[in-house]
Amino acid sequence: MLKDGLKRINILQGSVRSGKTWISLILWALWITQMPKNANYLMCAKTLDSLKRNCLDILSKIAGEKYFSYSLSKKEAVLMGRKIYLEGASDARAEEKIRGMTLSGVYCDEITLFPQEFFSMLLSRMSADGAKLIGTTNPDSPEHWLKKKYIDRKDELDIYCEKFLIDDNCFLSVDFVENLKKEYTGIFYERFICGEWINAEGLVYPNFSEEKHVIKGKIEEKGDFYISVDYGTLNPCSMGLWQIDREKMQATRLREFYYDGRQEQRQMTDEEYYQQLEILAGNLPIRQVIIDPSAASFIACIKRKGRFAVKKADNKVLDGIRLVFSLLAQERLLFHESCKGCLREFRSYVWDEDAQSDAVLKVNDHAMDDVRYFCNTILRRQFR
Ligand SMILES: Nc1ncnc2c1ncn2[C@@H]1O[C@H](COP(=O)(O)OP(=O)(O)OP(=O)(O)O)[C@@H](O)[C@H]1O
Ligand SMILES: [Mg+2]
């Protein structure tokens, strides 16, 4: 019955933590038992790591070790006696491998994060009789390819699409749900809590407020210190000095250096920037300098001097923005009034409304980048 009940493409979409992954994995396990053993099956997520984290470990719990086992190094799993290939959608070699296959069943985690070509190629390989795809996703922009080319055409394309909401998940505690809801506002609330496909428009951080996030007057310097750097020669260069208070789980940008070579009509050399880094650090024990991974010459310069430990920043833009947004919402990120470049950019940092999927306008984004580097590289782990 289940076999007939499923369509060719089955998408469970909606808010975070709403149970999409659990239910889809139960569906996948039940469905696969009705399918032949000698057919080709595939499970994929953006990367193999995220597949493990989001799906394989849960499937082990749901199915039990007797019915499900996997090896990431072999990129294979066995579910109910059926061999399943495991792949990461962002791996170019995966595409080559799958291009030659005939697939009977495909499981996809977080489809909006896949390259569109990978997804359409999967569908083109699903030529076996009764082949099905089961997948989950959070909503994205209404312009996203998954929404426009597939979900919006569901009647025409043999697609089943069900929306899940966090309030429907009775396995979560009321407190957990309430706290999670507080972490999101604006478009993120609409998407990740209400499950709406909504455009990212206007300010990237509409929740930034002078009242809540800006500190005036003297700040006592104590805690762990870091400096984050977005390097530019022609474009502005922005460096922020941060202090982390672990007890309060708050990070404060104490001071900054912000220099616009174009506006000043003079570019600074790496040596000059290094002098500014020293001035910003003063006598404070700086744990690490988090820096734009593409700033090779400046990274080499800092290393040569030997005073600071350098860490290349995690530069995943959208993940970083979500984190900064959520830290602002929780008032874990504060800024001293002297950080003028950063405060100005908060008021002018906007989404690119003409882009096909979420993207920010790449102007007025230098301090925004260094803030994001710091949050994504350091605070993501420390404030977990
Ligand atoms: N059927 C279930 N039995 C037991 N626990 C469940 C069940 N469904 C959901 N849960 C609980 O709810 C949590 C969230 O579910 P799930 O991971 O499926 O959400 P999701 O919609 O995929 O979220 P995200 O969008 O964040 O990936 C799970 O970690 C689990 O604790
Ligand atoms: Mg999920």
Written account of the structure:
- By secondary structure, the protein is of the alpha/beta class.
- The chain folds into two domains: 2-192, Rossmann fold (3-Layer(aba) Sandwich), CATH 3.40.50.300; 210-382, Nucleotidyltransferase, domain 5.
- Helices cover 39% and strands 22% of the residues.
- It contains 16 helices and 15 strands.
- It has an eight-stranded mixed beta sheet. It has a seven-stranded mixed beta sheet with strand order 9-15-12-11-10-13-14, with helices on both faces.
- α5 links the parallel β6 and β7 (132-137).
- The longest helix is centred in the C-terminal third of the chain and has 17 residues, at 366-382.
- The two termini are 43 Å apart.
- The structure holds adenosine-5'-triphosphate and magnesium ion.
- The site of magnesium ion has 4 residues, from α2.
Write a concise synopsis of the structure shown.
With 384 residues, the chain is α/β, with parallel strands linked by helices. It has 16 helices and 15 strands.
Q: How would you characterize the largest beta sheet?
A: 8 strands, mixed
Low-confidence stretches are none
Average pLDDT number = 93
Helix content: 25-40%
User: Rg to the nearest angstrom?
Assistant: 24 Å
Strand order, sheet with most strands:
3-4-5-2-6-7-1-8
How is the secondary structure organized here?
Layout: H1 2-5, E1 9-14, H2 20-33, E2 41-45, H3 48-63, E3 68-71, E4 76-79, E5 82-88, H4 92-99, E6 105-108, H5 116-125, E7 132-137, H6 145-150, H7 154-157, E8 159-164, H8 174-183, H9 186-192, H10 210-213, E9 214-215, E10 224-230, E11 237-245, E12 250-259, H11 261-264, H12 270-281, E13 286-291, H13 296-305, E14 310-312, H14 317-329, E15 333-336, H15 340-348, H16 366-382
Parallel strand pairs: 1-7, 1-8, 2-5, 2-6, 6-7, 9-15, 10-13, 12-15, 13-14
Antiparallel strand pairs: 3-4, 4-5, 10-11, 11-12
The site of magnesium ion (MG) has 4 residues, from helix 2.
